[in-house]
Specification:
Elements lengths: L1 H17 L7 E7 L3 E3 L2 E5 L4 E8 L5 H4 L4 E4 L3 H11 L15 E2 L8 E7 L9 E4 L10 E7 L1
Parallel strand pairs: 1-4, 3-9
Antiparallel strand pairs: 1-2, 4-7, 5-6, 5-8, 8-9
Length: 151
């Protein structure tokens, strides 16, 4: 009986290591009323080849009235990206078309809508500071978060 219990425990331990949980390479982010993201901090495991963000606009307003999107830049680039985005206007989701400083982005969403963006983790560098924000006018000052690459 003791041998059988030991054998069963050993089998469970081996099975547990054979099916170790993969790195979490995706996250759901809510764009909430009150100009808030949840969560406001994202950790990307370096073991991921790609990372996926699913943005969920939990509000009720149209994208024209209070849209939300998710835009990732280096923290040092955010002010210039935002200024260029305002010039680009609503038809471009307040983002300059072809802006290489934008590392990833979703389209602008209205309430109840969802969008997904997947980007290669190779775009990120350990130790670099990244900020994600909503480019809708007057949202970015409050609606932002940080993203880090976990080595």
């Amino acid at each position: 009986m003791k041998f059988r219990l030991t054998l069963t425990l050993a089998a469970l331990m081996i099975a547990g290591t054979a099916h170790a949980a993969p790195a979490e390479c995706s996250i759901d982010v809510e764009g909430r009323p009150g100009k808030q993201f949840g969560p406001d901090h994202i950790v990307v495991p370096a073991s991921c080849q790609e990372f996926t963000v699913r943005l969920i606009h939990t509000g009720k307003n149209s994208k024209e009235k209070a849209g939300h999107n998710w835009v990732l830049t280096k923290t040092g680039d955010i002010d210039a990206v935002m200024a260029d985005g305002i010039q680009a206007g609503a038809n471009n989701d307040f983002l300059k078309p072809g802006d290489a400083r934008i590392l990833a982005k979703t389209p602008m969403l209205g309430g109840g809508e969802t969008a997904t963006v997947t980007f290669p983790v190779s775009r990120l560098r350990a130790g670099q500071s990244y900020t994600y924000y909503c480019s809708f006018p007057a949202h970015a000052q409050h609606m932002r978060g940080t993203l880090v690459l976990q080595p």
